[in-house]
Each structure stands twice: as structure tokens, then as C-alpha cells.
């Protein structure tokens, strides 16, 4: 395997890739668009906190809640309140029993059921609980006059208060990586159709050298754009080595998928038919980060889940090696699988 020949082939592939006006334009436009969208999106968390309340008679203790920066939204039933909180419409819901005022007046202990959304931070839950207890004390003049019973609806993901644009970083990263599979698959498919690859194999270029060159081109294009995007958006501010390694592993996975698409395609139309559904499936885990609670455990069967999880935990929670090593290891396993399958399947097509 001659590295001089491989270098010449890499140069040829890069030249042909950017000579294709469609992919050259889309590559540049997409990268600029992703960075622009990132900075256009809100960079802060909305401080307005909406609380759902179900109360046959609204007690005075809750009339003062709005003075504390909370907005009360009256619900028709406890069932509708639970659904609204679980669906993310409100970060918390308070159910007030009809006999609360009577119990407070008679000196008995009342009860308030408080439901929290899955993404409500622990600190905020504690603050609401203490606030309700203090308001009850002001109403009755007696300590512990109301027992507040908190409950989290759905999966507890405490600590996630992240600006929307930072939640979208894993989504952008996956899209950037996967879009390059279309370009690589198109390049290989055109060379197969034009019998360029067959002509190259007549020269001293070996099959192993051919795939090494294609691997360098695919990984280089995907990895370079992904790292550039993460650097431009501040994604490398936390644990840059982990992020760069995750992008590299993601680029290998995308290149392996590109080999498989090239083996199953004959022209651009077929590549798009295979590529777009693949991109949609691989972006599903990112939507789980963007909208917590919308996907369940089955999403772990999608290879991109481990890339998304590693990027999300590292960029948004400053996770270290001990927190995401298993994600990177599983992602490496998928890389080996996809690249091996891609080379095997595409190699048969070239024979």
C-alpha cells in the first residue's frame, strides 16, 4: 500500500467533491446556516414560571404566589392538571383539596399535592415546596399547618435547565456528520458508474489503498466540519478532547454508513432515497435531548444515541471521561461494524 498513491487519490477525491457545485454549495451553506441558527436561538432560560392549579376554591395562600414570580393557571380537573404538567406545558401543578380552608380554620393540618415536570430542577422543586409551606404559615399563623406532598411526573431529569440552542448542539452535530455521507456516497457511486475505480485498480493502487483513501476523505470532511461547528458555537469550551474524540468516532460511523449507501445506490436519486431516511432515524436521539421525555429506552438501539449522549453530557454538564467512556466505547464498536460492513459490501460491488 503506497501512501504516495493514496495521497494522490485523496487529493483527486477532494477536488471532485468540491467541483460538484451542489455539494460544495450545500456544504458551505449548511455550515453557515447551523452556526447562524445557533446564535439566533435564545441564549438564556425563560424566567417566567407557569404553575397549574386545580382548586374548587382558590385559597388566599395561593393568591400571593404571583408576587413571588409564579403565574397561576387554573385547571378544570386534577386529571387535566397531571396531563399538562407531564406534557411539559407547566413546570409544576398544585392540587388544592376542597376542605383545605376548613382544616386550616379548625387548626388541623391540611395537604397540598404538588406535581413537577420531569425536567424541573431539584432546587426549584425545593423552593416551591418551601414557598407553599411559608404561605400556609402566613395564612394560618401556625407552623406545619400544611403538608406539601411533591411528586415528579415522568422520568426525573433534575438539573436540566439549558438554553434551547445548547440543547440543539447534538442535533446539529449529527446532521453535519450525516450530510457528508451523501457526498461521499455520491462520489463513490459516480466513480463506480463511470468505471473510474475499476481503472484505478488496474494501476498499482490496491483495494486496501483505495478504501484507505476513501476513508480519509470521508472522515476528514465530516470530522473537519463538525469540529469547526463546535468550535464556532463554543462547544469545545468544555472537555475539548472528549468532544473532538466523539466527533472523530462519529465521522468514522458516518463514513461507514456512506460506504453502505454507495454500495446500495447507482445514482443520486437512489442515494437520496437511502440517505434521507437514514439521517432522520439517526437524528431521533437528538430530539430526545431537545424535548426530554419524548423518546423511551428503545432509542438506545440507534447508533447515534451514544454520540448524542456523549456530546450532550459533555457540553451541557461538563461530564468527564468516567461519565461517558461507555458511550464512546459503544460508539467505537459501531464504527468498526459499519466500516467493516461498508468495505465488505462495497468491495463485492467493485469486483
Question: What's the helix and strand layout?
Answer:
Elements: H1 3-19, H2 21-40, E1 49-54, H3 60-63, E2 70-74, H4 78-86, E3 92-95, H5 100-105, E4 110-116, H6 122-140, E5 146-152, H7 164-167, H8 169-193, H9 196-202, H10 207-232, H11 240-263, H12 268-282, H13 284-290, H14 304-317, H15 321-350
Parallel strand pairs: 1-2, 1-3, 4-5
Antiparallel strand pairs: 3-4
Helix pairs in contact: 1-10, 2-8, 8-10, 8-11, 8-12, 8-14, 10-11, 11-14, 11-15, 13-14, 14-15
Characteristic terms for this protein:
351 residues; alpha/beta; elongated; single chain; abc type-2 transporter like fold; 5-stranded mixed sheet; 2 domains
Descriptive notes:
- With 351 residues, the chain is α/β, with parallel strands linked by helices.
- It contains 15 helices and five strands.
- A five-stranded mixed sheet has the order 2-1-3-4-5, with helices on both faces.
- The protein starts with a helix and ends with a helix.
